[in-house]
TrEMBL record:
Species classification: Eukaryota, Metazoa, Chordata, Craniata, Vertebrata
Function: Catalyzes the last step of the cholesterol synthesis pathway, which transforms cholesta-5,7-dien-3beta-ol (7-dehydrocholesterol,7-DHC) into cholesterol by reducing the C7-C8 double bond of its sterol core. Can also metabolize cholesta-5,7,24-trien-3beta-ol (7-dehydrodemosterol, 7-DHD) to desmosterol, which is then metabolized by the Delta(24)-sterol reductase (DHCR24) to cholesterol.
EC number in record: 1.3.1.21
Membrane topology type: Multi-pass membrane protein
Catalyzed reactions: 7-dehydrodesmosterol + NADPH + H(+) = desmosterol + NADP(+); cholesterol + NADP(+) = 7-dehydrocholesterol + NADPH + H(+)
Species in which this protein is naturally found: Eolophus roseicapilla
Transmembrane segments: 37-58, 92-112, 148-165, 177-197, 304-327, 333-351
Gene Ontology terms, MF aspect: 7-dehydrocholesterol reductase activity
Biased composition (Basic and acidic residues): 1-15
Protein name, per record: 7-dehydrocholesterol reductase
Pfam families in UniProt: ERG4_ERG24 (PF01222)
Record bears the keyword Endoplasmic reticulum: yes
Length: 475
């Protein structure tokens, strides 16, 4: 193994590459400049159908007790017309608009006005100002990592209200769920449209913009890489983490409160879903600095996919299990409940350890121990747009030696556990595992395509050393 140092952004010493790769070819990594017909068809499909899918799922719960087939049967048999379903759908209300505006404003204030203090007293927690990865244009952005703090403050206030102040009912989210969905859509479309306009007229880092020339693709996948307003309002970090992910646990708490109100008790399945998803959310905020190095922040541009997805898709579809359990309170047998909990914990352990191993490896530049041994790795290099050459390493030890994306495998096991908690009466709660399987498999392929463009022959050496993607011996 070579002993070259990975260039740290802060100690960047630039020099022109002497390799054959020209800067022009290197621009390709992280960027699909030419939109193939499949990408365009997928983009058009999602733009047209993703909002309908969200509406269909939420409406099915509201009007059909979470049965996905009955609305279709009703429509096909002429039992009901589209207009009947639409007329029964709650519309936007002033109350929901007020709640939503207050919620988003509160999260913006927590994000930009309250520098992180958690890292000052929580051992092991990395917060405060942190650097992101090198962008394709060679820029290193700084971020204020204060998501954990925002999550804690929000939840302390939530519990203070639920148990002490009683300003509003803890079922408030469930009670306004569909009117809030219209508000989330308005914000999702507004922010995506604004991001597109900003990309054309006042981008933050013009060299990191991507124009494919295809309006729909640019709208969906984004033009700007890291749109920002002022020094600290970063669109990707804000919309990815808050308001959607902070809301995730509150939404689940609201569902639990609704069960209590309707049935006089909270079922063990609801508690399981709250605990397992709560761990996932807390993990996200505890590791928010690590999140700066994930694909969302490092490689994706900010468009409708992230803007609308974070405002609508995530809070509405990632919380379907809790919503389902309000309509179908499932009380699991002890053995089943323990089995699901164990599956969830093992999935979480694999997810966390795999991510941790890569993070540790990259942070220490390979000077660490993975499973008690010095990690093995493959040296690789890549170039920024400017032609600056950087060195990096791809680890082949630990979980990263088992498969190239074993973190996704752990994530999928955890996702399956949430779904299983809902029993087998209806398909709706299983949407999540189906969706995550598609998302993560597609992400795997997308990421590997990008890594191949970035590292070239070094990536091929890596895939030869670690031949499987998700499951050793299978895929
Ligand atoms: P990864 O954390 O796996 O990051 C992939 C990147 O890591 C690659 O692009 C490459 O980046 C680097 N890399 C790849 N192989 C190696 C290696 N062997 N050694 C060192 N570095 C390597 O992917 P994501 O960002 O997609 O996922 C992060 C986590 O978030 C995952 O656990 C995933 O399950 C979860 N997730 C959850 C989602 C949800 O909706 N719940 C959605 C998406 C992700 P580089 O260019 O730096 O070399």
């Amino acid at each position: 193994m070579g002993a070259q140092q990975e260039k740290k952004p802060s100690e960047e010493r630039k020099y022109r590459s002497t390799q054959n790769n020209t800067p022009t070819s290197q621009v390709q990594w992280g960027r699909a400049w030419e939109v193939d017909w499949f990408s365009l068809a997928s983009v058009l499909f999602l733009l047209m159908f993703a909002p309908l899918i969200v509406y269909y799922f939420i409406m099915s719960c509201d009007q059909y007790q979470c049965c996905l087939m009955n609305p279709l049967i009703d429509l096909l048999t002429g039992n009901r017309h589209l207009s009947d379903i639409w007329n029964k759908t709650p519309m936007l209300t002033y109350r929901a608009a007020g709640i939503y505006a207050l919620w988003v404003t509160f999260q913006v204030v927590l994000y930009i006005c309250l520098p992180d203090f958690c890292h000052k007293f929580l051992p092991g927690y990395v917060g405060g100002v942190q650097e992101g990865a090198v962008t394709p244009a060679g820029i290193v952005n700084k971020y204020e990592i204060n998501g954990l703090q925002a999550w804690i403050i929000t939840h302390v206030l939530w519990f203070a209200n639920a148990y002490y102040f009683h300003y509003f009912s803890p079922t408030i989210i469930f009670d306004n769920w569909i009117p809030l969905m219209w508000c989330a859509n308005i914000l999702g479309y507004a922010v995506s449209t604004f991001a597109m306009i900003k990309g054309y007229f006042f981008p933050t880092n013009p060299k990191d913009c991507k124009f494919t020339g295809n309006f729909f693709y640019d709208y969906m996948m984004g033009i700007e890489f890291n749109p920002q307003i002022g020094k600290w309002f970063d669109f990707k970090l804000f919309f990815n983490g808050r308001p959607g992910i902070v809301a995730w646990t509150l939404i689940n708490l609201s569902y639990a409160a609704k069960q209590q109100e309707l049935y006089g008790q909270v079922t063990n399945s609801m508690i399981l879903v709250n605990i397992l998803q709560g761990i996932y959310v807390l993990d996200f905020f505890w590791n928010e600095a690590w999140y700066l190095k994930t694909i969302d922040i490092c490689h994706d541009h900010f468009g409708w996919y992230l803007g609308w997805g974070d405002c609508v898709w995530l809070p509405y579809l990632y919380t379907l299990q809790g919503l389902y359990l309000v309509y179908h309170p499932v009380q699991l047998g002890t053995a089943n409940a323990i089995g699901i909990l164990i599956l969830g914990f093992i999935g979480y352990y694999i997810f966390r350890m795999t991510n941790h191993q890569k993070d540790l490896f990259r942070r220490t530049n390979g000077n660490c121990k993975i499973w008690g041994k010095k990690p093995e790795y493959i040296e690789c290099s890549y170039m920024s747009v400017e032609g600056t050459k950087y060195y990096s390493k791809l680890m082949t030890s630990g979980f990263w030696g088992w498969a190239r994306h074993f973190n996704y495998t752990g994530d999928l096991m955890g996702s399956l556990a949430y779904c299983l908690a809902c029993g087998f009466e209806h398909a709706l709660p299983y949407f999540y595992i189906v969706y995550m399987t598609i998302l993560l498999t597609h992400r795997c392929i997308r990421d590997e395509h990008r890594c191949l463009s970035k590292y070239g022959k070094d990536w091929k050496r890596y895939t030869a050393a670690v031949p499987y993607r998700l499951l050793p011996g299978v895929f």
